[in-house]
Design a protein that fits this description.
alpha+beta; 26 helices; four-stranded antiparallel beta sheet; binds zinc ion
């Protein structure tokens, strides 16, 4: 008897799948399309091809592939494509360092990803493969840009931008983490540049509202997006500078505190600042202050505990509610990105205004009574952020501030001094990059067509797309795009007047490429259009999307925006791209994030070479609940390898010692026990798939089944009934392990049952054999009933805890808390003590 030879088995099945194009699915109207099958679009986030796939990729694609197989065997026509997010900085930075064109390094890496995905046996429809850096793909990225431009959703404006001095490029707000460049960690500075933006702010409300239409997204991902969009309700109120005849609108969420405004503050970037101080004694000091503020990050500037600095402007504005003149300041704790870049300061009721008033000895006037015991205040109980009756507020005195809120806004509106308003933290998406390795922005500038000295922005006509990247010698940005050096490429003909014109030299943020790739997969070879509308409508939305939680904001928000904009343009039918989202956890090693610099990375290629892909995939699914972080263990993968080898030996033995036979209808004794176990495993694995892909416990159930088969087999081989039971149990184990270990699952099934396991419907548990000994347990948090769960009567404590934690109703009360004690009374209750 040969041992478990993963290599031979895996090579054999990979060849079958490649030759028979097993995982390819046809579009509607094409031969092979089955209109009676329901569709299911299963998609993992496409990889960024840099070097080799890492263990995070293995986890993501192993999870996605298991889901794809599960759905196929439930009768769905599953579309499961793959591609590469192949523009971007790492390839370009490597090009700057080595001089090798980014295309070459990128394509080498893509080849490595392709090879490894095949070696992992991932069930990919290779006919739909794409890479975002190719001219074929760029063509349609540029076409989408022009679609947005036509509708005013892409525009050019001068803007203070976040600039990374090291990478010499503009960063999106989202790419600035704690004032530093997301990629290189360099402190970010501000600069003013003409930039391209997408008007995502037009969609802020819809991006919030449509969370309701999603089938299943993790709550924490939606919360992160909600906070990022940052909707707040309030009022816009105008303060007037009489001397200069200038109105300064402010956005406030607290119009009920208007009577308490004792000074007025502008952000250092405020466009009217220059006019206010030009030629005044304050000018020099303000200039210096503004320059210094430009070097600070928004996070630092806005921090509550930071010492407050600023400069008086020597000007004043009139508070519209009481006609009082209040002094103006510039201070860096006010951010241009929020509201209008100016605030009315109410030191009695706002922490930062209070700190500023103390530092500059400004009056503090209380306009809401009340006490707040939670936080230390000064002897008068200020600043007071809470509610209470209004005071010092004229006609509103004595009213509860919340009740008066609407009245004040209505009164302001009547007087023409303000109106209710909604403010968003979300800014428009800055998409231009002064970098080489991205999709060129498809516009040209023509002086002759321009007006008032400014050149006209002329879109490149569709028939001239794609605008391909020129060859350049030097990829390093010099404060302008490297494309600017390709003079022969930059100089072009104006599509409108035929005169001389020059091309836009900025390229697009790579997040643009990944905002629509899931639509291109559906019709990837279409040369006449980005996609055929009827094909896109058939497959969209993505039914199950899988990827890392690090994309909770950027990628997922941008893709949602693109989907809505494209639907508005009439190109697709859906408003949301991803009906269900699964966010996988991170794999760590020795408790730390893996990184090359720490030297603690795990190479999937090495482990696949050593144990086989089935072992690597099954282990990464067994390592823990897939949504949580988990720590890699070399003993763990060895253990899984031993399990698969044991299943393999069982198969070889069963093949020799039993004959294919019908399973007995009325089994008894050990045969009944083993068959019952097999049906228990079917039921368990199925339910684990359905309750959020709990693959670790699903695989554990198959292990239990194999253990029982070993325990009972020798007593069963003797009778036809017994032999049939062992054979059934072994084939069932193969069938259930197939989504995780597809090569072994396919091989064992073929040997014992004949035919292709993936063409078999997913097995169904026989209720007659399912021991109905499940019990209902109550789950408590700090002694309070939060949910009830069903569990097998003999389920171990660990499983009961696992089940209890998996309940949404329970998780809500555990989130962010420390569990100090877990109490399990088998058959009765689970209680978490938290603090
Ligand atoms: Zn940087
Ligand atoms: Zn022209």
């Amino acid at each position: 008897m040969a041992g478990y030879d993963a290599k031979t088995i895996e090579r054999r099945w990979q060849q079958v799948w490649a030759e028979e194009k097993t995982w390819e699915v046809a579009n509607p109207g094409q031969p092979g399309h089955d209109p009676d099958k329901p569709k299911s679009y299963v998609l993992e986030m496409l990889p960024y091809p840099s070097g080799e796939p890492h263990v995070g990729h293995l986890r993501c694609y192993a999870i996605g592939d298991a889901i794809a197989h599960f759905r196929r065997r439930h009768g769905f026509e599953v579309i499961h494509p793959m591609g590469y997010d192949s523009f971007g900085l790492p390839a370009e930075n490597n090009a700057i360092k080595t001089g090798e064109p980014p295309r070459e390094g990128t394509e080498r890496s893509i080849a490595s990803f392709q090879r490894q995905f095949r070696e992992w046996g991932i069930s990919i429809d290779w006919s739909r493969e794409l890479a975002t850096h190719t001219p074929e793909y760029c063509h349609w990225t540029q076409w989408i840009f022009l679609q947005l431009f036509e509708r005013g959703l892409a525009y050019r404006a001068e803007a203070p931008v976040q600039w990374c001095p090291k990478d010499a490029t503009v960063l999106a707000n989202e790419q600035v983490i704690d004032g530093r460049c997301e990629r290189c960690g360099t402190e970010v500075i501000q600069r003013k540049l003409e930039q391209w933006f997408f008007k995502i702010t037009d969609y802020a409300e819809r991006l919030l509202d449509d969370f309701e239409t999603l089938e299943s997204w993790p709550e924490h991902v939606m919360t992160m997006q909600r906070n990022w969009i940052g909707r707040s309700e309030g009022a816009e109120v105008s303060f007037r500078c009489e001397e200069l005849d200038l109105d300064f609108p402010v956005f406030t969420t607290r119009p009920d505190t208007l009577f308490g405004a004792t000074f007025f503050v502008l952000a250092p970037e405020h466009p009217e600042l220059e006019r206010l101080v030009a030629g005044t004694p304050a000018e020099a000091e303000v200039r210096e202050y503004v320059d210094r503020a430009a070097r600070e990050s928004a996070e630092d500037r806005g921090a509550e505990d930071r010492e407050k600095t600023g400069v008086p402007l020597g000007r004043s504005v009139v508070n519209p509610v009481n006609g009082e003149e209040i002094p103006m300041f510039v201070a860096d704790y006010v951010l241009m990105e929020y509201g209008t870049g100016a605030i009315m300061a109410v030191p009695a009721h706002d922490e930062r205004d209070y700190a500023f008033a103390k530092a500059f000895e400004l009056p503090i006037r209380r306009v809401i009574d009340g006490e707040d015991e939670e936080i230390a205040r000064d002897e008068e109980g200020l600043p007071y952020p809470g509610d209470g009756p209004m005071t010092g507020s004229g006609r509103f005195d004595g009213k509860g501030n919340r009740e008066a809120y609407g009245e004040i806004v209505a009164w302001l509106a009547e007087e023409g001094r303000g109106e209710s308003a909604i403010n968003y933290r979300l800014r428009d998406w800055l998409v231009s990059r002064q970098r080489y390795w991205g999709a060129p922005i498809p516009v040209v500038y023509c002086d002759a067509c321009g007006e008032g000295g400014a050149p006209a922005i002329v879109p490149v006509p569709e028939e001239q797309l794609p605008v391909e990247l020129p060859e350049v010698e030097d990829y390093a940005p010099q404060g302008r795009s490297p494309l600017a050096a390709a003079e022969g490429w930059v100089a072009t003909e104006c599509p409108r007047c035929g005169g001389p014109a020059h091309r836009e030299t900025d390229t697009m943020d790579t997040f643009v490429d990944s905002s629509w790739y899931f639509i291109r997969y559906l019709d990837p070879r279409n040369g006449d259009a980005a996609w055929d509308r009827s094909i896109a409508d058939h497959w969209l939305p993505v039914d199950q999307y899988i990827g890392g939680v690090e994309h909770a904001i950027l990628h997922l928000l941008y893709a949602r925006f693109f989907t809505k904009a494209l639907a508005d343009c009439g190109h697709i039918d859906v408003q949301e791209p991803f009906a269900k989202l699964f966010a996988q956890g991170m794999i760590t090693r020795d408790g730390a994030k893996m990184s090359k610099s720490r030297g603690n990375t795990v190479s999937p290629a090495e482990h696949v070479a050593r144990y086989g892909a089935d072992t690597a995939r099954t282990y990464i699914c067994f390592i823990g609940p897939p949504e949580r972080d988990a720590d890699w263990s070399d003993e763990g993968i060895e253990g899984v390898n031993r399990f698969l080898a044991r299943l393999w030996r069982l198969c070889e033995e069963v093949e020799q010692r039993t004959e294919p036979a019908a399973v007995p209808a009325e089994p008894s004794g050990a045969a009944r026990e083993l068959l019952a176990k097999a049906h228990w495993a079917i039921d368990k694995v199925t339910r684990d798939f359905e309750r959020g892909f709990q693959f670790n416990t699903a695989i554990a159930a198959v292990m239990e089944l194999v253990n029982d088969a070993y325990r009972l087999k020798d007593g069963l081989y003797g009778s036809p009934e017994g032999g049939a039971a062992v054979r059934f149990a072994t084939a069932t184990a193969a069938s259930l392990i197939f989504p995780f270990a597809p090569h072994m699952g396919a091989e064992i099934w073929e040997r014992l049952e004949g035919g292709r396991v993936w063409e078999q419907p997913w097995p169904q548990a026989d209720p007659a054999l399912l021991v109905s000994d499940t019990v209902t347990l109550v789950v408590q948090v700090n002694g309070k009933l939060r949910d009830r769960i069903e569990a097998a009567a003999d389920a171990p404590e660990e499983e009961l805890l696992e089940l209890a934690r998996a309940s949404d109703k329970v998780a809500r009360f555990l989130d962010g808390k420390e569990v100090v004690k877990e109490v399990v009374v088998p058959g009765k209750l689970v209680n978490f003590v938290v603090r």
